[in-house]
């Protein structure tokens, strides 16, 4: 498992545009958004979180577009399914490394922007955990979509996955709403964490099964 | 299955869209043995390899592998990353071979001065040679090759044949398809009409 981690990390590190590009897109959205509205407006504070969620959603969608395609086309997946190595472990690691290189940086950037938008350091308690969890969920779900449409283009995969993301977006909205009213948000974060734990195990297993079907 | 047997193929048949490619195919593979799968284009050689590898399923019959038989496969795709250098690609495949073994094989295949080049900048033949380096430096007991000599010059073909022979000497088993005759001791499995 550690070797897999090292190899996948090595591959992605060498492919700068695969992870640095999406982070720059995220940065561009979060920087350009306040410029397009009145900076002094209170509305900005209210809608900033929505912009963060949508920006992270789009960033993840763009970044995982070809998560399995390259390995499918050059025969890596075929070789993996033949060897004694587990395809499940490979998929799990791939998703984890994408989260590590894309999900974590945009979560940190998003947190930084939420602090600068709200002017309160306490917004770290809302932005950081919710973004860390939600980006991991988004990467898992978009990867599922991409595995389904492995040789049919990524748009189809994104379309298939979109309805699965709506409950997460609703939860994220609830977190901001509750925080705004000063209510407890830890229960909602725990609910999201529960969803993530379920997804972490199930999605790589489903994806590895789908990939095997594609190879056949 | 005896201890030295690596693979047992029993009455395997395969059809695509009601077009029967081969039927009731049976053969065995033992340690240190090679099998050359022969057949015309479209006779199902690659499909048979995919069935043996467990990627595709046979319409009928059984493929039984020895539990200790770990396999490595080189098909039509070279399993190389175009955006990585030759050295990085070898590193990526986590070869168990020593540095000197890798160096001497690259030297024999005339790739030693290309280690810093991106694989995408190599010719098809050079990429194929690099893909074969991955195969020959691997410790898997069974080597499965689909047309390993396509795109290679005569000199390299001779070299590949000698590598394959030395793999057999190491008691490894080889299954390969090839239209180009390879001078290694092997039994033949013919599918379709030649």
UniProtKB/TrEMBL annotation, chain A:
One of its GO terms (biological process) is cytochrome complex assembly. It is found in: Membrane. The keyword Cell wall biogenesis/degradation does not apply. InterPro entries: Cyt_c_biogenesis_CcmB. It comes from SAR86 cluster bacterium. It is a multi-pass membrane protein. It comes from the Bacteria. GO terms for molecular function: heme transmembrane transporter activity. One of its GO terms (cellular component) is membrane. Keywords: Membrane, Transmembrane, Transmembrane helix. The chain crosses the membrane at residues 20-40, 47-68, 88-112, 124-143, 155-177, 189-211. This is Heme exporter protein CcmB. Pfam families: CcmB. Belongs to the CcmB/CycW/HelB family.
């Amino acid at each position: 498992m550690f070797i897999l981690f090292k190899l996948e990390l090595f591959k992605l590190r060498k492919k700068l545009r695969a992870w640095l590009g999406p982070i720059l897109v995220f940065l561009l959205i979060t920087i350009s958004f306040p410029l397009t509205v009145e900076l002094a407006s209170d509305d900005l504070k209210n809608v900033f979180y929505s912009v963060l969620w949508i920006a992270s959603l789009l960033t993840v969608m763009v970044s995982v577009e070809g998560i399995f395609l390259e390995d499918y086309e050059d025969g890596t997946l075929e070789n993996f399914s033949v060897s004694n190595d587990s395809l499940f472990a490979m998929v799990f690691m791939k998703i984890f490394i994408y989260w590590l290189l894309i999900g974590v940086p945009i979560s940190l950037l998003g947190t930084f922007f939420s602090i600068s938008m709200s002017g309160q350091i306490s917004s770290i308690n809302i932005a950081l955990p919710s973004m860390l969890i939600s980006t991991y969920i988004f990467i898992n779900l978009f990867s599922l979509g991409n595995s389904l449409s492995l040789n049919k283009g990524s748009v189809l995969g994104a379309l298939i996955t979109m309805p699965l993301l709506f409950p997460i977006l609703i939860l994220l909205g609830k977190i901001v709403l509750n925080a705004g009213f000063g209510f407890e948000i830890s229960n909602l974060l725990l609910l999201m964490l529960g969803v993530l734990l379920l997804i972490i195990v199930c999605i790589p297993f489903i994806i590895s099964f789908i990939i095997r079907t594609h190879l056949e | 299955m005896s201890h030295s047997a690596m693979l047992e193929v029993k009455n395997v048949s395969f059809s695509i869209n009601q077009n029967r490619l081969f039927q009731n195919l049976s053969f065995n593979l033992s340690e240190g043995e090679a099998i050359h799968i022969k057949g015309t284009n479209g006779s199902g050689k690659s499909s048979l390899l995919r069935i043996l590898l467990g990627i595709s399923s046979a319409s009928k019959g059984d493929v039984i592998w020895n539990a200790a038989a770990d396999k490595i496969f080189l098909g039509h795709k070279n399993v190389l990353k175009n955006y990585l250098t030759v050295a990085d690609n070898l590193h990526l495949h986590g070869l168990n071979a020593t540095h000197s073994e890798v160096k001497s094989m690259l030297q024999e295949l005339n790739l030693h001065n290309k280690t810093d080049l991106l694989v995408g900048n190599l010719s098809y033949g050079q990429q194929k040679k690099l893909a074969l380096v991955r195969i020959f430096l691997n410790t898997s007991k069974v080597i499965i090759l689909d047309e390993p000599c396509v795109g290679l010059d005569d000199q390299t073909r001779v070299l590949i044949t000698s590598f394959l022979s030395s793999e057999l000497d190491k008691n490894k088993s080889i299954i390969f398809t090839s239209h180009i005759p390879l001078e290694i001791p092997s039994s033949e499995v013919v599918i379709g009409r030649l």
